[in-house]
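Q: Please design a sequence for this.
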C-alpha cells in the first residue's frame, strides 16, 4: 500500500500561485491513478484533477489555472495552482486508486493523504 503526504498549502492573496506536493511512500505512485481533491467548509468534496492511466482531466472550476506535474525520481506529484481565487480556499487532498490488472483505475480511491490547507484572500 502507499502512504501519501501533502504539503505546500498556505495563505495567499487572490491572483497568487502555490504549488502543492503529494509525496508517496511505500510504493510508487505510477502504479496508481491519482487525484487531487478539495473540500471547503460546508461544501462537498470536489475532485479537481484526475490523473488516469492515459488521461489527465481537470474540473471546469480550475481548468487553465491548475496543472498536475510529476517527479518520478522523488515519487512526488505536484499541483501547480495559478491565478488563485478566494473560492479556491479549501483543504486539498491527494488520493490514489490502484490500477487493475486490466489497466484501468480502480473505482475507489483507497489511499488518502492528511490534507493541506489553502486559503486565498481577496
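A: Design:
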Amino acid at each position: 500500500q502507499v502512504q501519501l503526504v501533502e504539503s505546500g498549502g498556505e495563505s495567499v492573496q487572490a491572483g497568487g500561485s502555490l504549488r502543492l506536493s503529494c509525496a508517496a511512500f511505500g510504493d510508487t505512485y505510477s502504479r496508481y491513478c491519482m487525484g487531487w481533491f478539495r473540500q471547503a467548509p460546508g461544501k462537498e468534496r470536489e475532485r479537481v484533477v484526475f490523473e488516469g492511466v492515459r488521461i489527465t482531466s481537470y474540473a471546469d472550476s480550475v481548468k487553465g489555472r491548475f496543472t498536475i506535474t510529476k517527479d518520478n525520481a522523488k515519487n512526488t506529484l505536484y499541483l501547480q495552482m495559478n491565478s488563485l481565487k478566494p473560492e479556491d480556499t479549501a483543504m486539498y487532498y491527494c488520493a490514489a486508486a490502484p490500477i487493475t490488472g486490466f489497466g484501468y483505475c480502480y473505482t475507489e480511491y483507497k489511499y488518502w493523504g492528511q490534507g493541506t490547507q489553502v486559503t486565498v484572500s481577496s
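Q: Thanks. Anything notable?
A: The mean pLDDT is 95. The two ends are 40 Å apart (CA to CA).
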